[in-house]
Amino acid sequence: MKARVAASIVLALGLTAGMSGCTLLTPQDTLYIKETAHGVNGSVGKIDIRNAVIVSNTRGTIGNLVVTFVNNEDKAHYLTVHHGSSSHDIAIPADGIKKVGGEGRRIEFTGLDAKPGSLTDVYFTYADATGAQIQVPVLSSTFPGYEAFAPTR
């Protein structure tokens, strides 16, 4: 009888070790999180800048800023975006999200002088906040999935 109990315990321990052994030495994937977006993130005051990228023609002379703004405050803001001598104002709703660069509002920079594959400085600011300068990647409008975001000029 004691032999049967001992054999059952040994078998249970063996099964437990055997079934969990694969994950015992495997590293956790959640320890190595990779950003899967092509753009960059930042923030200015209470507004988050998400996945900012400039889609340009192949010469890098004109670019369309594609970005999502998230307002984390209960009041609307007018965000100003500067690049070189270009400046654009965007209304960001209170506690809202504003997507720019697609079908709706576009921010196009002329005189971009940044070839696809490079980074270019874009400055974001609004009245109550210290501005933020972010190096935004420039992608070619021939990049798969970005053809629709090509500059219109």
What's the structural blueprint in terms of helices and strands?
Blueprint: H1 2-24, E1 40-44, E2 47-56, E3 62-71, E4 77-83, E5 86-92, E6 97-100, E7 107-110, E8 119-125, E9 132-140
Parallel strand pairs: 2-9
Antiparallel strand pairs: 1-2, 2-3, 3-6, 3-7, 4-5, 4-8, 8-9
Walk me through the structure.
With 153 residues, the chain is α+β, with helices and mostly antiparallel strands. The protein folds into 2 domains: 2-31, no CATH class; 40-149, PCu(A)C copper chaperone (Immunoglobulin-like). It contains 1 helix and 9 strands. Strands 1, 2, 3, 4, 5, 6, 7, 8 and 9 form a 9-stranded mixed beta sheet that branches. The longest helix has 23 residues, at 2-24. It is elongated and about 90 Å long. 22% of the residues are buried.
CATH homologous superfamily annotation of the largest domain: PCu(A)C copper chaperone
- Structural class by secondary-structure content: alpha+beta
Topology-level CATH name of the largest domain: Immunoglobulin-like
Radius of gyration: 25 Å
Give a quick summary of the entry:
With 153 residues, this protein is α+β, with helices and mostly antiparallel strands. The protein has 1 helix and 9 strands. Strands 1, 2, 3, 4, 5, 6, 7, 8 and 9 form a 9-stranded mixed β-sheet that branches.
Key attributes of the depicted protein:
single chain; about 150 residues; alpha+beta; Immunoglobulin-like; 2 domains; nine-stranded mixed sheet; 1 helix; about 40% strand; elongated
